[in-house]
Amino acid sequence: MDILNRYSKKLKDFCKANRIKKLSLFGSYLKNSYSAESDIDLLAEFEKNTGYGLLDIARMERELSEIIGAKVDLRTPEELSRFFRDTIVKEAVVKYEA
């Protein structure tokens, strides 16, 4: 089951409001290997010149967690380790794209 499908309208509105041009699912929920303690790993690509910092990302994580009803771990491609960034970006499944 894809946990994000039931929230597609709210996620679309959230992405538009926060200038997210692409939001993708990766990690244990994508691989269907999650447990009750797992968070939902989301990868956000923002429009140019948003100027978002760590506090903005933390706020968005909280808001997404409230929308979905589960803990969200929001990352950007730039934050990911160079050792596995390409693999994650390639395997991630797009849930919203502007």
Short overview:
This protein has 98 residues and is of the alpha+beta class.
Helix count from the secondary structure assignment: 4
CATH class: Alpha Beta
Tell me how many strands there are.
4
Strand order of the largest sheet: 3-2-1-4
Strand content: 15-25%
Uncertain residue ranges: none
CATH superfamily: Beta Polymerase, domain 2
**What is the radius of gyration computed over CA atoms, rounded to a whole number of angstroms?**
13 Å
Distance between the termini: 24 Å
- Amount of helix: 25-40%
Protein structure class: alpha+beta
Based on the coordinates given, report the CATH architecture: 2-Layer Sandwich
Q: Round the mean pLDDT to the nearest integer and report it.
A: 92
Which fold name fills CATH's third level, the topology?
Beta Polymerase, domain 2
- Taken from the alpha-carbon principal axes, the silhouette is globular
The helix-strand sequence is HEHEHEHE
Keywords:
4-stranded mixed sheet; Beta Polymerase, domain 2; 4 helices; alpha+beta; 98 residues
